[in-house]
Amino acid sequence: MHIVVDLNRCQGYAQCAFLAPGVFTMHGEESLLYTPVVPEEQRERVRRAVAACPVQAILVGEEAGTGAR
Amino acid sequence: MLGEPRADRIVIVGASLAGLRAAETLRAEGFTGSLTLIGDETHPPYDRPPLSKQVLLGKVAADRTGLPQRRRLDADWRLGVRAGGLDPVGKRVLLDDGADVPFDRLLIATGTRARPWPHPDEAALDGVFTLRTSGDAAALAARLDAGPRRVLVIGAGFTGSEIASACRERGLEVTVAERGPAPLVGALGGTLGELAAKLQRAHGVDLRCGVTVTALEGDGRLTGAQFSDGTRIDADIAVIALGAVRNTEWLAESGLAAGPRGVTCDAGCRAFDMYGIVTDDIFAAGDVARFPHPLFEYQLLSLEHWGNAVAQAEVAAHNMVSPGPRRRPHLTVPAFWSSQFGLNIKSVGVPTFSDQVVIAQGSLKDARLVAVYGYRGRVTAAVSVNQARSLDYYRHLIETAAPFPPAPGAADQRESPVPVPSDVPDPKLLSHGPTVALTGHLPDRRLTVVQPAR
């Protein structure tokens, strides 16, 4: 599971940082840092964070280009 | 148009963010033909913004920023091979490994690369880096881990400033050298440039503006640098953050309107040929594209922005599989963000397309504010510092060409509401290239530097 956050859209509500602090952390008051490759044990938390984001800025999916030669 | 637009061959050159999002959109819109993505890097598409932030801070490994895909692509990925040419008549992309790839429609999304240090001998010194690819970030992060005595960052645009911020956060000594009068001034103008300079110094950066680096010294290994004001420093790492070069050389013989400023295309992302005639089978998107935008008087814009790569790729892909009347224009208001020295800086519109700026909310003193930019009496951009939630409102003002200065009334407005000149310098005065280049014709403004092809 990989994630990317559209940080143009993100407004720093920090719901993700409450729900999945192992993946999303606030850096300063408003900036979000996150781990793009989600560890297995964090997946459920990340799914909840994706659903809870007020501006729906988190995109989740399998790694692009896997199986690329 | 020959063939069935939803079932023929589409080739995308450039396998990064724009190429990926275009491929997803093509499939989402029902394209069932063959889809080939060609990329010169060996990695599948990855996200670049974290490279100067999470990765340099040591929180994420450089090879762990792979992008998620939104759907199955059923694509042929040709990674690690560079496109070397384009035959627009035979409709083939020529690869450096000797192969050629035929297409019915082509998307050019080759992006940019880091502008190299102009002296190859100095650039080859151990300890001299650029930052554009995950490989660059891995090498630089490893050297920051080793605890250098001083890092020199050359160029104080967004990338250079973010690198300096990450170094200071790691407790490393940093010198930043910028030819212009302040950091970020090329993108944000004088008022916020001054704020950025104060911020860098408050965080312990040895910031030197109005100087150039005249020599990188070392014997195999970097040991220091000399400046145009006669001073020198010891440094064991130098990061060249001089902006980007558009990857258009492979199109030199193609007959397309492609050059150092990018690939010129129409609002529907269709590339122009060198005579200004629009093609109907070759499209462009992302950092490499140069397109007219009605909000900015139809000047040609090239944007080195994450959000533009996504939005333009989606429009280009839609138009590649849609008949004429169903095509869409790429009209998205430009937007970007930067995170540095504890601040979240976000921008909408084009701040360099301005003659005045006013602090509409908050204050410079608190480093929490919204600066609104105007051009000839209408709002053209807004930049927030730690106040991102206000920005949507100003985006609406830009989209509706609202009068500048905007009406007062923000509850937290503390600065003088009187606009001041926005002081956007000519980019040729800066160390780094502009991340937004306006290249239309306004007689009183020169916002790009023309570099003749070699």
UniProtKB/TrEMBL annotation, chain A:
Keyword annotations: 3Fe-4S, Electron transport, Iron, Iron-sulfur, Metal-binding, Transport
InterPro entries associated with the record: 3Fe4S_ferredoxin, Fe-S_cluster_ET
Superkingdom per UniProt: Bacteria
UniProt keyword Iron-sulfur, yes or no: yes
Cofactor(s) this protein requires: [3Fe-4S] cluster
Database matches in Pfam families: Fer4_15 (PF13459)
Keyword Transport applies: yes
Function summary: Ferredoxins are iron-sulfur proteins that transfer electrons in a wide variety of metabolic reactions.
Record-given protein name: Ferredoxin
Record organism: Streptomyces kronopolitis
From TrEMBL, chain B:
Domain FAD/NAD(P)-binding: 9-313
Database matches in InterPro entries: FAD-oxidoreductase/Apoptosis, FAD/NAD-bd_sf, FAD/NAD-binding_dom, FAD/NAD-linked_Rdtase_dimer_sf, Reductase_C
This protein's name: Pyridine nucleotide-disulfide oxidoreductase
Source species of the chain: Streptomyces kronopolitis
Keyword Oxidoreductase carried by entry: yes
Residue ranges of domain Reductase C-terminal in the record: 336-408
CC cofactor: FAD
Keywords assigned: FAD, Flavoprotein, Oxidoreductase
SUPFAM superfamilies attached to this UniProt entry: FAD/NAD(P)-binding domain, FAD/NAD-linked reductases, dimerisation (C-terminal) domain
Residue segments, region Disordered: 404-427
